[in-house]
Amino acid sequence: MAGFSRVNGDAGGVFNFDVSGYTNGSAVGTGVTINPQGPGLDYFAIDFGANVTNAQFQSGGCVEAVNRTIQQLTTIATYEIQADHTVSTVRSSKYAVYPKGGTTAADLQTAIRALGTVNGYDLSGATVAATTFGA
Asked: Across-strand partners of 46?
């Protein structure tokens, strides 16, 4: 089978979305997440403060309220709800949002805590921390 040796290029994205000017940079170092399909993302881990039951995922529940609040500050690209003890209860979640630098963990935490009690669930103890992809 015929082939050829690659002499140009690297494992970096086509564009480095995390710098101004959208210039094509040099090779990307370790620990840098590349999203070739869209903008640079920030990652946040949210601890709701206590286990969230399935009812809170329904319309009017606290998860919907948290998502709407986040969407007022930034745009959710994706999120994952993580089970803690059983399949029917969760305590934490991870969110990938854009634009990169559009909000901070402190601002998200303040906004989520300000929701107070939603559908019988108290969010005043929720915490938000910046995290990384896959962490």
From this structure: 93, 128
Query: Which 3 state secondary structure label does DSSP give 85?
Result: strand
- For residues 29 and 2, give the distance between their C-alpha atoms in angstroms, rounded to a whole number: 32
In the prediction, which pLDDT does 110 show? 97
State the Cα–Cα distance between residues 111 and 84, nearest whole angstrom: 24
* CA 121 – CA 56 distance, rounded (Å): 8
Looking at every residue in the chain, the average pLDDT score rounds to 77
- Asked if 39 and 20 touch (Cβ cutoff 8 Å), the reply is no
Q: Does domain 42-131 have CATH number 3.40.1180.10?
A: no
Residues 6+ apart with CB under 8 A from 116: 122, 123, 124
Domain locations along the chain: 42-131
pTM for this one?
0.69
CA atoms of 108 and 59, how far apart (whole Å): 21
**C-alpha closest to that of 126 among 73, 69, 74:** 69
Residue type, 115: L
